[in-house]
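User: Can you predict the 3D structure for this chain?
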Amino acid sequence: MTSPSTLAPIGESRPGAEWWRTAVIYQIYPRSFADASGDGIGDLPGITSRLDDLASLGIDALWLSPFFTSPQKDAGYDVADYRDVDPLFGTLADFDAMLEAAHARGIRVIIDLVPNHSSDQHVWFQAALAAGPGSPERARYMFRDGQGEHGELPPNNWESVFGGPAWTRVEDGQWYLHLFDSSQPDFDWHNEEVREEFRGTLRFWLDRGVDGFRVDVAHGLIKADGLPDYTPPEDADSMGGEEPVPYWGQEGVHDVWRDWHRVLAEYEGDRALCAEAWLPTVDETAKWVRPDEMHQAFNFPYAMSEWDAEQLREIISESLRAFPAVGAPATWVLSNHDVIRHATRLAMPGHPQGHGVGPTTEGKPDPAAGLRRARAASTLMLALPGSAYLYQGEELGLPEAIELPDEAREDPTWFRTNGERYGRDGCRVPIPWSAADPAFGFSPTGESWLPQPAEWAAYARDAEEADPESTLWLYRTLLATRRAHDLGASELEWLDGYGDDVIAIRTGAVTVIANIGTEPVTLPQGTLLVASDTLEGAELPADTTVWILAD
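Assistant: Here is the predicted structure, written as structure tokens:
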């Protein structure tokens, strides 16, 4: 096998035309993608075995959620060793083989890094517990003395994103901060030793040939001086709100990304950084992608938008103003491993991010209506200039798995809120590959770490492969047509005369019309390139999007 040091990144480009500016990037949640070992948990050899399927879809790159050594308290986002592969997923040799196979198919690979916190099983945190207050080992994390006469109260009132207090007390009386689970202690990023350790981690994976990093909680890391008390509004999203938050979006975090940018610049091949930065506005998000910082940032205002024409017009316009203003591409995303799948979410307006959907949720949508909207939304998104992210299974039209039994759930949110929030398990159920096989072809043994709904047989890849009207074939057509007409690099023009409930744009030579209202819309003359659903004559039905090439 080729040695890691010779796994060069694919292709080169000129400044302003880097691959990440227009790429369609496919997110793989490794434990739920494909299981080669038969233990019911997806793995790296499983990914390698399915690369031809991804190449046929027409994607440009993969983003892999964490596969590092971890006790899996938060499905791998609790990292114990940033420079090795957890045995659940394989070995470093399996990673190298997967990367080489992806590159051979013209597919780049981005991996997930989690710099805000580690696992409590990380060697550094274990050393911090053993060393005691005031030690250099403790200075790597956010240890603080408590309040009260005997330090019996936490240092402040912060709450964990997963519910419950954000502080845990250790035996010697100090407290440590964990914005997520108690098994995920926060690093202290004012500590130069922490910064140098992560520079080494970046270089470890860049030397192996990865094409970039998606950075978890990129708006975190730096906390406000003095760690002031903060109580978020009741309706605030868990990862950020409308007002300044002392543990999100602090100015000092930008120095970290400038430092990382310099590390990536040491390497050839347009390596990229993408920020998971949950911020209230597009303008705020654009600060993360200034020329010397990140290259991309997830557009969460777009991802969280409802199926509403006015809201979508506003966010698209803001995005195409704010991101290019700092020299970055706009990005577009509808689903990921942390939010309700958009085939369900778009048909249930107003449901708060982070709560999940389960058997007792009110207002659960009709699956057929949700799928129709999802197909229309994806058809609109993939016509927009910039880069787009897909989440595994959305190309099959998968809905959220709503009816999971309580005893099967694994998300820390479920446990830390005593079942008040269902959390994210419903979007993480292993995806179906073959309708008639055990575990729908996800695992050769029929094992599956989360139970798959029986009705997912209809969404299996082989079933959709045989149906030219399927969501799989829609996505293939969208990606091929997007590439053929270079839509990712095109300018967007708004078209008038279609009514308030219609999104009408021209990108390059392609006219895109999305009917978000309830009444049919008369279509212009031209050659139909793509339709998200069946058309009736020259009219565009509700919840349908088309691409048309003028005659």
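The chain is about 25% helix and 15% strand. The longest helix spans residues 192-208.
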